[in-house]
Amino acid sequence: MNKKQLIVTSILLSLMLILAITQGFFKENFEQVILMDQGISEFKEYKICKGKYTVSFPSEWSVTEKEIKEDQYVSYRLDFKDKSSKITGLVQVINTKEDLNVFAENDLNNQYLEYYNSEVIPFKNSNNSGVLVQYDTTVKNGYEFKNECYYLNLGEGKTAKVLFNLKAKDYKDNVKTIINTIISSIKTS
């Protein structure tokens, strides 16, 4: 390698390193811009299952907690919806030691509504990993919904199920940022 090639190579490597470092900074800023564009300025944290776990939702959203007896199959339920009712859903803590993939498949097959375009895939984000089930449904009055159901293993024989129902006509890519922020907020206390 001659001197010019060495200089050009070192400059290119330096620029690549700078780009890699600044990428994380811009990603966080883009997520904040998307959240603010959707009218979300802050999140409210909810302690669930007697404070064992936490989940955060946009403070503008309506959230209803339903405490259920601890020894039941579903030991906790929380319903949520955004202020325009474009995104609705629920969080359940389920008592099961079943494998997440098997549990997700069985849960999908036991749907009350007919579903189509279903896909069961593993997911991983900054704080959690588990199984994501995506599927579409149509209700009698013609509304089509895109559904995303996340299954997370909480340990101690407990599984978190987080279901998002979105009207298909309102589904946009920036909704994924909101969903990912909520899923990333689920933590063991």
Describe this structure in words.
With 189 residues, this protein is an alpha+beta fold. The chain has 2 domains: 1-37; 42-188, Mog1/PsbP, alpha/beta/alpha sandwich (Protein Transport Mog1p, Chain A), CATH 3.40.1000.10. 30% of the residues lie in helices and 42% in strands. It contains 3 helices and 10 strands. It has helices at 3-37, 100-109, 173-184, and strands at 43-48, 53-58, 62-67, 74-81, 87-95, 115-124, 129-138, 144-155, 158-167, 187-188. The strands form 2 sheets. It has a 7-stranded antiparallel sheet with strand order 3-4-5-9-8-7-6, with helices on one face. A 3-stranded antiparallel sheet has the order 1-2-10. A hairpin with a 2-residue loop joins strand 8 and strand 9. The longest helix is centred in the N-terminal third of the chain and has 35 residues, at 3-37. The chain is elongated and about 75 Å long. The N and C termini lie far apart (56 Å). The model has no long low-confidence stretch (mean pLDDT 82).
Name the CATH homologous superfamily of the largest domain. Mog1/PsbP, alpha/beta/alpha sandwich
CATH topology of the largest domain: Protein Transport Mog1p, Chain A
Structural class: alpha+beta
Radius of gyration: 20 Å
Low-pLDDT residue intervals, each spanning 5 or more residues: none
CATH class of the largest domain: Alpha Beta
Domain count:
2
Helix content: 25-40%
Write the CATH architecture name of the largest domain.
Answer: 3-Layer(aba) Sandwich
Mean pLDDT rating: 82
Shape: elongated
Which percent band covers the strand fraction? Answer: 35-45%
Distance between the termini: 56 Å
Order of helices and strands: HEEEEEHEEEEHE
Major beta sheet summary: 7 strands, antiparallel
